[in-house]
């Protein structure tokens, strides 16, 4: 009885009731009197009964991983959908009552099952209907217009356009405000819900897959209704089926992932977007240089299937990399950094592109490419050689100074003591240094000190730097100014003219304005290091300017050095005549509490080690020998040249009156299993110790 009442109330001669708030509220009152709730009347777009979800094990070479997939049920038998097939759509949408007048008739359903496109009388009629929608200024007018359209003319395109027009009108602020004032609750409006359900059903039953995708994008923008997730899920289920059937191309699959990723919660995104990997794997050969970037851009939206899709991109990139533009390479590096994925094979491909196209890439693209390699902590000989060729050919013609500064940052980060790059930067600095901002000055100048590279045209170079500091010192950030001062000291230059600008209340107030405790502590350590270096090396410096730090601190020591000290202590004791002549990990009391000033092994006369090392090294230091163990990070890359801080460290110990012995960690590691050869190496190094200065 209740069902017949519902049909009498909501359908009349195949036409929908007018969109009238008063009549709708009256209808709800009659339904309540009959004991019928809204949930029994409103047509729901529930998830398909023939669609399930599972997890499968996939093997790609040596890589095995679990991936989500969908299961289609055919006569109570589940079929895992992985690749496109000709499986018929046995589910479809349920017939839940003839509430809306524009239900798909039996002949149209037969056309759907046979794979034929439903017949449209002519394009002129469809165009006329669309123009009619465009003349509507409220959703109510769209509902009224739908009543006048014959059933067979409401094809998927018309349904999509009606859906789009309603959502556009409802998202209009004036329309929403007017309905709020009238007291109408749009999210609970029966007519609206019924129309939406029937339009969604018409769209999903059509054969035009691109219309379903467009409808999904429109529904994801819905701001008014409370059932948008229901409509979205209905469209998602249909899209999942069609993706596994190969109805969407690579670009459309990527667009679906982006739409779902930007409109769903993380949980729902994992439930739907991660199942779309099937549509990409099935069309792997269709991924070309024209659409490969679309696939890269969906990686941030994937979770479980990200690794599988990335493996696919690795394989396809080998065939198309040389056809990609520079901005695409920069974007790939940015995406890899965002998703925290590192692949030696992919990085080698990107390095090959850089090496091949270095002279055709634009400065802006090269800037982003170098930043990408820097962020991903990647360097190889191919990148180094390509940057050397570029700077050598274009150093004086470079227009974007930030690009050259980024290359210098890259060299400093990976200790690339490349003479062509450093000399090219030197020429550019001399010619254009006066026009550079303080940030760029620091970025270009600091690597010279880190890499211990003395400018060839030193007179002009230092004159330009001095004039820049004279004119722009107050514009430098405190940390950049301290780095510039330290770089000068690394290179054996002492900026006496700027000491008063550093050790003055204004500069120190700016320094202590940093709120990050770690950054502030690091800047204080650098400032103390600069003060100590000037005190030890510059006779005209009236220092130290800073008080001695008496606070207790723990110092980090490289574990490799610590283990090697234990390894060579015994042969050293045998050579010099006893363990009482050796003290390890010595930090002199009048030097800063810094790992840079830790003496790995100190050799001294018997009874003069340990806590008794409290003497004037300038008078008695000649009887002490500082043994320093250098790990690979103490050298420039692929070189035996020490980096600037280590050169200064050795110089300071010699200034204090000690002899210095340098041992290579790699050499010690090879000789530790050959005691006799190790002893011979130690004797040789002790004999060639550098004298005190």
From TrEMBL:
<dbReference type="Pfam" id="PF06743">
    <property type="entry name" value="FAST_1"/>
</dbReference>
<dbReference type="GO" id="GO:0044528">
    <property type="term" value="P:regulation of mitochondrial mRNA stability"/>
</dbReference>
<keyword id="KW-0496">Mitochondrion</keyword>
<dbReference type="InterPro" id="IPR050870">
    <property type="entry name" value="FAST_kinase"/>
</dbReference>
<dbReference type="GO" id="GO:0005759">
    <property type="term" value="C:mitochondrial matrix"/>
</dbReference>
<dbReference type="InterPro" id="IPR013584">
    <property type="entry name" value="RAP"/>
</dbReference>
<dbReference type="GO" id="GO:0000963">
    <property type="term" value="P:mitochondrial RNA processing"/>
</dbReference>
<dbReference type="InterPro" id="IPR013579">
    <property type="entry name" value="FAST_2"/>
</dbReference>
<feature type="domain" description="RAP">
    <location>
        <begin position="625"/>
        <end position="684"/>
    </location>
</feature>
<dbReference type="GO" id="GO:0003723">
    <property type="term" value="F:RNA binding"/>
</dbReference>
<protein>
    <recommendedName>
        <fullName>RAP domain-containing protein</fullName>
    </recommendedName>
</protein>
<dbReference type="Pfam" id="PF08368">
    <property type="entry name" value="FAST_2"/>
</dbReference>
<dbReference type="InterPro" id="IPR010622">
    <property type="entry name" value="FAST_Leu-rich"/>
</dbReference>
<dbReference type="GO" id="GO:0035770">
    <property type="term" value="C:ribonucleoprotein granule"/>
</dbReference>
């Amino acid at each position: 009885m209740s069902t017949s009442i519902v049909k009498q109330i909501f359908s009349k001669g195949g036409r929908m009731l007018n969109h009238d708030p008063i009549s709708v509220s009256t209808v709800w009152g009659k339904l309540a009197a009959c004991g019928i709730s809204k949930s029994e009347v409103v047509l729901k777009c529930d998830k398909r009964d023939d669609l399930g979800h599972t997890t499968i094990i996939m093997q790609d070479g040596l890589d095995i991983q679990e991936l989500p997939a969908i299961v289609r049920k055919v006569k109570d038998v589940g079929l895992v959908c992985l690749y496109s097939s000709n499986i018929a759509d046995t589910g479809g949408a349920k017939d839940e009552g003839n509430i809306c007048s524009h239900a798909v008739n039996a002949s149209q359903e037969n056309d759907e099952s046979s794979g034929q496109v439903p017949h449209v009388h002519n394009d002129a009629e469809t165009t006329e209907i669309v123009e009619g929608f465009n003349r509507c200024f409220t959703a109510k007018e769209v509902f009224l217009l739908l009543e006048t359209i014959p059933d067979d003319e409401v094809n998927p395109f018309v349904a999509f356009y009606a859906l789009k027009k309603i959502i556009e009108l409802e998202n209009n602020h004036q329309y929403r405000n007017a309905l709020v004032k009238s007291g109408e609750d749009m999210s609970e409006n029966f007519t609206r819900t019924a129309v939406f359900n029937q339009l969604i059903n018409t769209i999903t039953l059509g054969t035009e897959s691109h219309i379903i995708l467009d409808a999904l994008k429109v529904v994801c923008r819905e701001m008014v209704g409370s059932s948008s997730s229901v409509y979205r899920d209905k469209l998602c289920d249909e899209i999942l089926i069609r993706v596994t059937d190969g109805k969407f191309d690579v670009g459309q699959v990527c667009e679906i992932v982006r739409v779902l990723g930007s409109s769903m919660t993380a949980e729902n995104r994992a439930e739907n977007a991660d199942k779309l990997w099937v549509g990409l794997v099935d069309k792997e050969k269709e991924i070309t240089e024209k659409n490969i970037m679309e696939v890269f851009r969906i990686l941030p939206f994937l979770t479980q299937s990200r690794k599988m899709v990335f493996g696919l991109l690795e394989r396809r990139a080998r065939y198309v990399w040389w056809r990609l533009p520079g901005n695409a390479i920069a974007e790939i590096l940015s995406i890899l950094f965002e998703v925290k994925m590192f692949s030696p094979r992919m990085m080698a491909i990107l390095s090959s592109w850089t090496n091949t196209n270095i002279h055709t890439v634009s400065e802006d693209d090269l800037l982003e490419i170098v930043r990408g390699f820097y962020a991903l902590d990647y360097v190889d000989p191919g990148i180094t050689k390509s940057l050397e060729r570029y700077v050598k050919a274009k150093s004086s013609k470079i227009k974007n100074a930030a690009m050259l500064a980024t290359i210098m940052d890259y060299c400093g980060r990976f200790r690339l003591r490349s003479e062509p790059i450093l000399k090219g930067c030197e020429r550019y600095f001399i010619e254009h240094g006066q026009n550079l901002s303080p940030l760029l000055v620091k970025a270009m100048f600091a690597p010279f000190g880190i890499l211990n590279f003395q400018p060839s045209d030193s007179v002009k170079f230092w004159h330009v730097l001095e004039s820049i500091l004279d004119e722009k010192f107050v514009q430098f950030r405190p940390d950049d100014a301290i780095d510039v001062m330290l770089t000068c000291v690394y290179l054996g230059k002492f900026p006496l003219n700027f000491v008063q600008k550093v050790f003055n209340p204004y500069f120190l107030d700016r320094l202590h304005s940093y709120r990050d405790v770690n950054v502030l502590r690091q800047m204080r350590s650098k400032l103390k290091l600069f003060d100590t270096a000037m005190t030890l090396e510059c006779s005209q410096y009236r220092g130290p300017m800073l008080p001695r730090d008496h606070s207790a601190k723990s110092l980090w020591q490289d574990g490799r050095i610590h283990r090697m000290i234990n390894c060579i202590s015994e042969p050293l004791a045998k050579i010099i005549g006893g363990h009482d002549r050796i003290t390890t990990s010595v930090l002199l009391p009048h030097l800063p509490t810094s790992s840079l000033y830790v003496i790995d092994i100190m050799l001294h006369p018997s009874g003069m080690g340990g806590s008794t090392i409290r003497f004037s090294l300038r008078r008695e230091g000649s009887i002490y020998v500082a043994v320093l163990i250098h790990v690979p990070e103490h050298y420039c890359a692929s070189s035996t040249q020490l980096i600037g801080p280590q050169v200064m460290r050795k110089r300071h110990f010699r200034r204090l009156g000690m002899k210095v012995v340098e041992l290579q960690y790699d050499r010690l590691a090879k000789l530790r299993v050959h005691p006799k050869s190790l002893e011979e190496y130690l004797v040789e190094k002790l004999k060639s110790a550098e004298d005190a200065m």
